[in-house]
Specification:
The chain has 446 residues and is mainly α. Helices cover 78% and strands 0% of the residues. The protein has helices spanning 5-16, 32-55, 64-84, 88-107, 117-134, 138-153, 155-164, 167-186, 200-224, 229-255, 260-285, 290-318, 334-370, 375-387, 393-419, 421-445.
């Protein structure tokens, strides 16, 4: 581990000029002052970056020069603390800056009644970043400096987002925190049950993963709304639940015929996002499977995108009324999480059992049945079997593909039942195109 700039620079020179090249290249004498200047220059740059944003604010107590000097002070205090072996020098600088800013705000308050706490914290962050640069964490300091500047700069946008979030939205985030930070750590990491297929912590990890992806789509959907049209509505709706999106817009299309063109686009897009979602989950859990899975998913996506482009063109020709908001329930509710966890646990046991008694054919049958209503559970179960070397890449990709095909069939039936033949005529060609792409990918690339 590199503890100071001098060691850091020496390490870089050693990596760039290994011993075997010394016969043709002689490394110049190392200047110990270069690392010191580099550390102070980085600290100065971080201070200037944050100060540039603060300088734009009216009636501000600390601007460009102050932040630049504070960044330098942090680096200088770290140097003195390391040289003298007295860490209190760093603490004294930190306390002094805080005291000066608080005193300045107390004696001369801002005109807009702003307490100025943001600038105080930003100044202290700048000082601390300057200090950690000296201790060899320049890259981390730069990243945190950019992040700090972005948080300060995008204040209006962040304020607007917070105002638009409802009680349910905030509750969703809190519930996700309970799922991931409260429940997950206390679950035992041990295999139980038939075939030792049930690991409570592993099962809940998958619940957290799927809930997190759904929450990201749900939050984006709530923030974007219907302002940016059917494309984003279909994408974010598909991230949350493609089946729910299909059901809701099928009903809208039956009730208002003028919504048929846009409903077709949204339904097709939501179905495409299932494959994106599956690919992302596979990349996180079983990255070695991506090389075999990507061609199959890519074939389905390619033909599906062409179908969506055609449907989008039809929508522009015919036009449609304003889009209704997609009302999808909170994806992180404890009840929803427990339901998915129970379903996933059941699929794990059935997968192990069917693989034992019927080999691959049993797993394929389970994929066709469970994939009708939920692709996530069978996908996660398959990825676990693949990770444990119980099945090969070909069997894993085939199982996931069969689940996706079954899900397409199920949603096509929903479209007919809930949306009617008019919507079916607009979407079935897209569903068929995606299915054809998946089958081609499975036959020719696996």
């Amino acid at each position: 581990m590199v503890n100071n700039p001098q060691d850091y620079i020496a390490t870089i020179h050693h990596a760039a000029c290994p011993a075997q090249t010394y016969n043709t290249y002689t490394m110049p004498p190392f200047d110990p002052n270069y690392a010191t200047l580099q550390a102070f220059a980085t600290s100065l740059g971080i201070g200037l970056l944050i100060g540039l944003e603060r300088e734009r604010q009216p009636d501000i107590k600390a601007g460009l020069r102050t932040f630049a000097l504070v960044g330098l002070l942090g680096c200088l205090a770290a140097l003195l603390a390391q040289t003298t072996g007295n860490s209190w020098i760093l603490a004294a600088g930190f306390i002094s800056i805080a005291a000066m800013m608080i005193t300045s705000l107390a004696t001369d308050p801002l005109e807009n009644n702003d307490p100025g706490t943001t600038s105080v914290v930003a100044l202290l962050v700048c000082y601390t970043l300057g200090a950690i640069v000296w201790y060899g964490h320049a890259s981390l300091a730069v990243m945190l400096g950019i992040t700090t500047t972005a948080l300060l700069y995008f204040k209006p946008q962040l304020h607007d987002i917070s105002q638009r979030l409802t009680h349910t939205d905030i509750l969703s985030v809190l519930q996700f925190g309970v799922l991931s930070l409260v429940i997950l750590p206390i679950l035992p990491n041990q295999n139980f049950g038939p075939y030792l297929a049930l690991n409570p912590q592993h099962i809940w990890w998958m619940v957290v993963l799927i809930s997190g992806i759904s929450l990201a789509g749900y939050t984006a959907l709530r923030l974007v709304g219907t302002r940016h049209g059917a494309m984003l509505l279909g994408i974010f709706g598909g991230l949350v639940s493609s089946t729910a999106t299909t059901m809701i817009f099928s009903r809208h299309a039956r009730q208002q015929a003028v919504l048929l063109p846009v409903a077709g686009v949204i339904v097709l897009l939501a179905s495409l996002l299932v494959m994106v979602r599956v690919g992302f989950v596979a990349f996180l859990i079983a990255p070695t499977l991506i090389a075999s899975l990507a061609p199959v998913l890519g074939s389905g996506l390619l033909l599906g995108v062409l179908a969506v482009a055609w449907a989008k063109r039809q929508q522009h020709r015919e036009g449609s009324e304003a889009l209704p908001m997609l009302q999808i329930s909170n994806p992180t509710e404890i009840k929803t999480a427990l339901t998915f966890g129970a379903l996933y646990a059941l699929i794990l046991v059935l997968s192990a059992w069917l693989k034992d008694i019927a080999d691959d054919q049993g797993l394929y049958l389970l994929a066709l049945i469970s994939g009708l209503t939920d692709v996530d559970a069978i996908t996660l179960s398959t990825l676990r079997l693949f990770g444990a070397n119980n099945i090969g890449a070909t069997q894993a990709v085939t199982t996931i593909t069969l689940a996706l095909l079954a899900n397409l069939v199920f949603k096509s039936g929903l479209i007919v039942v809930l949306g009617g033949r008019a919507l079916a005529r607009r979407t079935w060609f897209g569903m068929l195109a995606v299915a054809t792409g998946l089958i081609i990918g499975l036959l020719y690339f696996v």
